[in-house]
Structure formats: structure tokens, C-alpha cells
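To whoever picks this up:

The nightly regression suite flagged dTDP-glucose 4,6-dehydratase as changed. Nothing in the input moved, so I suspect the structure step. Input below, exactly as stored in the fixture:
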Amino acid sequence: MILVTGGAGFIGSNFVLDWLAQDDEGVVNVDKLTYAGNLNTLRSLRDDPRHVFVRADICDRAALDSVLAQHKPRAVLHFAAESHVDRSIHGPAEFVQTNIVGTFTLLEAVRSYWGTLPPLKRDAFRFLHVSTDEVFGSLGADDPQFSEATAYAPNSPYSASKAGSDHLVRAYHHTYGLPVLTTNCSNNYGPHHFPEKLIPLMIQHALEGKALPIYGDGKNVRDWLYVKDHCSAIRIVLANGRPGETYNVGGWNEKTNIEVVDTLCALLDEMKRKASGSYREQISYVTDRPGHDRRYAIDARKLERELGWKPAETFETGMRKTVEWYLVNGEWVRDVMSGEYRKWVETNYAQRG
Ligand code: NAD
Ligand code: DAU
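Regenerated output under the current build:
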């Protein structure tokens, strides 16, 4: 069995669903169910014995020890994090707590569990840490893409907390020999993306007739990767990555934010035509994000060269799939936005201890 943290969030849930669609090896899914975690996403696994859900905080050492002892995973894949840059600007404390203290607590629990394994299982064990390209800071227009050798220069409380977690993971390999792997990925998009992030927020606002709020001049660049391609990269790194190594993951899809929103508007104009005019008319420029990184871009050649990974989707095919998904899954969006879902989870889990 493998253990996944944060498997009720955007990327973690896509990973769990993809894994169980391709593999019979079970998954124990440890998630605190913050506002970003949603069990509805995993509804199709409700009666599937291969999926065990445990509601726990990665800062809770006793809970982690107990899950590890009970399920004896051969690998831990660590997705759980506070992930939204804007939230980290308004309230950085949660980011330090989950991303740094939580990763530290998880590493300590895993180190202790790993030490109890017999030699062959110890050698085969892996701790895969899912991180971000934001730890490298911001690029100028003509700079080369981030490689695995780029120096860390995080600029937001979110990216600083992720950088801290990356350093701890690295140190646990160097000092204790824990067989760790780290992936640093660019911006993901696709199904089950929480509608606080650019792409799902713009789709939702467009459909509701609201303004499409572009920060600053709209020319900040992100490098977009369809979430299922991120999941396939993680599977390959888990299977064949070299312990102690880091792997950059990206889709070679650099786009300005205004290009992204233009693409979304064109797809919506085609698939969900308005009575009159274009969704583009809803675009509105708003005050910039403080400290807004100008450009991210990933050089993913190491992953291709060493492990043979390539993304399956282009930006065009991935965006079309994404818009289609949001058009037929309005109920999922309404559930995560309404607050009703959170109340239900509180009610359901409070009585289970
Ligand atoms: P998300 O915010 O959608 O989901 C995070 C999940 O972690 C949620 O289910 C939440 O309930 C859970 N969680 C939060 N705090 C927890 C805690 N203390 N204990 C246990 N569970 C907790 O995030 P995401 O976009 O799916 O990102 C997943 C990982 O991938 C993160 O580590 C993020 O830094 C990284 N990443 C994200 C992107 C992206 O574009 N979204 C790109 C590169 C890397
Ligand atoms: O690069 C990887 C990172 O990508 C991940 O590590 C983060 O977890 C993930 O949230 C994402 O961070 P960004 O800050 O790049 O994503 P976000 O969707 O918040 O914003 C994308 C760009 O769009 C960014 O330049 C800010 C801009 N933006 C965002 C929102 C929410 C807007 O212009 N308007 C908006 O309303």
C-alpha cells in the first residue's frame, strides 16, 4: 500500500483517482479536510476497499505514527499543504504551520517508521515530496527556465514555506539516509481545481456574469501543466527516480495571464454561448498581488532524459477538457463554494472522534 497526504485536494485527489484506475495497490489517504479538501471528489471510491481515508493533521505526530504502524506503506507521497499564494499573503501562519511544521512532523514519523523496516523494505521505501517551481523565485523575460540547479529565491510566504519543506526533505536524505524524491512542478490546471485559483475562478465568474479580475497588467507568465500529466510524472519518479534527486515537472506552456483568460473566454464563447457578446467583455484589471512574481518557466529535460516522461496534453487540449469538465460539474463547484459541504463534514466527522 502507498500513503498519500492531501489526497482530498486538487492534485492529490486526481492522483488517487488515477492511481486506483491503473493499479490495484491500495492507498491510505491522510487529509485534514481544510477548506481545500473535499470528499465529494472521491465519492466514486466510497465502497472501494483499496481506498482508506483517514482524517488527520500532518502536524499530529501520534495520528501519523498510528496510520504508519497500521498500514505499513511502502511509500509516502506528500501532497498536503496550504497552497494558495493570496491566502499566504493575508495569513502566513497556517502556511508555516502546515508546510514547514507539518512536513517536519511527517518526516519525523516516517523516519521512525522506516527505521523499523527490515533491510530489503528499508531500501525499497520512498518518501516523495510534491513541491513547486515557486521556490526558485521570479524570472525575467529573457532568463532561461528554472532547472534543478537553479538557486532557491522564494518571494511569498507560500513559496518560502515550501522552500523550507524542500530543505528539510533534502536534509533527511543527507543526514539520515531517508530515500527521498522531490518534484518541483509548475502551475497545474484541470478537474477538481478549487475555484480560488486563476483558471477555475475565471470559468466560474464568467458563467455567473461577474467581472474577470486580472491582477496588474495581466502579463505575468505561468507555465501550465494539465494535472493528469503531473500525476503521471509523479508515478514515474516514484517508480524510477533516484533517491536524493529532485525533478522539475512542467508542460512547456508559458502563457501570460491575459492569454489564459482569453483562451477560456474563447472556449466558453464556443461551448456556452452568451445571449449576446463575448465573455471577454467581463475582463477587468484590478490591483496587483503584492510581490507578484513576474514569470515562472520550467526546464523539464532532466525528467524526460532520465525517466522518459513527457506530458500527454497540449495547452489547447488540456484547456478544452478543463472547460468541458467545469461545464458538466457545476454541482461539484457549488458544493465546495456553498459552505454546506464543510458543515456536512463537520457533522459527519465530529461524532466519529
Ligand atoms: P490544495 O490546496 O488543492 O489541496 C491541499 C490538500 O491538503 C487539501 O485536501 C487539504 O485538506 C490538505 N491539507 C492542508 N493542510 C493539511 C494538514 N495540516 N494536514 C493534512 N492535510 C492537510 O493543493 P494542491 O493544489 O492540490 O497542491 C498539492 C501539492 O502540490 C502542494 O504541496 C502544492 O504546494 C503542490 N503544487 C501545487 C501546484 C498547483 O498548481 N496547484 C503546482 C506545483 C506544486
Ligand atoms: O507555480 C506553481 C504554483 O501555482 C503552485 O505552487 C501554487 O500552489 C498554485 O496556487 C499556483 O500559484 P499561482 O499564484 O501561480 O496561481 P494562481 O492561480 O493563484 O494565479 C495564477 C496567476 O494568475 C498569477 O499570476 C496571479 C494571477 N491571478 C490570480 C487570481 C486568483 C489573477 O490575475 N487574478 C486572480 O483572480
